[in-house]
Amino acid sequence: MDKEHYTGLIDRYRSILPLAEDSQAISLCEGNTPLVLCRNLEQVNRKGIKLYLKYEGLNPTGSFKDRGMTVAVTQAVYEGSRAILCASTGNTSASAAAYAARAGIRAFVLIPEGNIAMGKLAQAMMHGAIILQIRGNFDDGMRLVKEVAEKAPVNIVNSINPYRLQGQKTAAYEIVEALGCAPDFHCIPVGNAGNISAYWMGYSELAEDVHNQGTRAVTASGLAARPRMLGYQAAGAAPFISGKPVEKPETVATAIRIGHPQSWDLAQAAVKESSGWFNAFSDEEILATQKLLTANEGIFCEPASATSVTGALHDIEHGKISEGSTVVCTLTGHGLKDPDIAIRQSSTELINIDAELDSVKRAILENL
Ligand SMILES: *Cc1c(COP(=O)(O)O)cnc(C)c1O
After folding, report:
1. How far apart are CA 328 and CA 312, in angstroms?
2. Using CA atoms, how far apart are residues 246 and 242, in angstroms rounded to an integer?
3. Distance of CA 198 to CAs 252, 350, 355, Å?
4. Which end of the chain is less enclosed by CB atoms within 10 A, N or C?
């Protein structure tokens, strides 16, 4: 890799990815996203907690899905595939469409009619995906994708594709590199449950490495520290809380509007092995957190992403996350993905004035 120029996560992490040496990376320079320390959240500072935001909305198509997609599409092309296929609540389709365009192959995406955010739909359309809008929800789409892939010559690029999780685990590597160690807690929104599983894989591999090399402090258990994994859901789509699938998931956070998570066992194992937990929050709480971050930290994430911080703040408040801890929250997608929700929930008034100096001056003085 060129020392000066970051060229994407396959170039950066090829040695820990199960790709053939001669496979050519299909990349948009994804990964290497900022880890932003919160400054202005009094309820966090008061407890001496360091709360970091892993800002995955700054990936090329605006969500963490790009980490998985670069690896999945690289492998699909290496295998000679001419088309990829996915079911999506929006971000997977946007990412699949972009990486397919980059690779010069076809993307077929199944999206739930009427429940996809405008930004995501715009991306899939602009990148030239074939968009199949189904009269059903994400879970229906997922079932159909699995059935059709048995018959048709296409690669599924949902997170049931193991290359997706392999790519997504690199976010854990970046965090450990940035902090010099794993955080105490990792908070993450859970929909199909691939991402929480991928982070756990990444943290676990790093702990093994440290254990094998003996380079860093090793805990009594013999493993270098891994974080406790905290998986947060929307109350209307919370199968991990009820312990069983949800037939009609409902939430404003459309990216996690999923009732039948595909990585059920992996996610359960991640939470259990890490002594973590699941929790769920109402749409009102999730939207309030989205606004809190935008207004107080200058960080705009989409509603599903705000679920991780909603959970962190709740569990800090209730003492479940102990004082003095280091906490990382994944912000999975960018706020611009869903402008409708943002504008609908904002109470900001537009002040209409004449196009003259006095009016501008008065408006500034009145609002200073
Ligand atoms: C895909 C997605 C999620 C959910 O991730 P899973 O791996 O399905 O649990 C959360 N937030 C955003 C913005 C997403 O795009």
Report:
1. 9
2. 8
3. 25, 43, 53
4. C
Task: Identify the residue whose C-alpha is closest to ligand 1 atom 2.
Answer: 255
pLDDT digits (tens, 9 = 90+) for 98-137: 999 999 999 999 999 988 999 999 999 999 999 999 999 9
DSSP state of 16: G
Global pTM value: 0.95
Task: Looking at the CA of residue 190, tell me the nearest atom of ligand 1.
Answer: 9
Compute the CA torsion angle 34, 308, 168, 202 (nearest 10 deg).
90
Strand, helix or coil for residue 18 = coil
What type of residue sits at position 294? T
* 200: its two tokens: 């756990």
CA torsion, ordered 169, 122, 291, 64, to nearest 10 deg: 0
CB neighbours of residue 247 within 10 Å = 10
Residues in the chain: 368
Query: What residue ranges line ligand 1, CB within 6 angstroms?
Result: 63, 65, 91, 159, 189-195, 255-256, 302, 304-305, 332-333
> Counting Cβ atoms within 10 Å, is residue 3 exposed (0-12), middle (13-18) or buried (19+)?
exposed
SS3 108: strand
Task: Give the residue whose CA is nearest to atom 4 of ligand 1.
Answer: 191
Over residues 272-296, the pLDDT tens digits come to: 999 999 999 999 999 999 999 999 9
User: For residue 234, what are the CA distances in angstroms to 119, 269, 308, 336, 356?
Assistant: 21, 20, 10, 20, 47
CA dihedral 315, 334, 290, 89 (to 10 degrees): -80
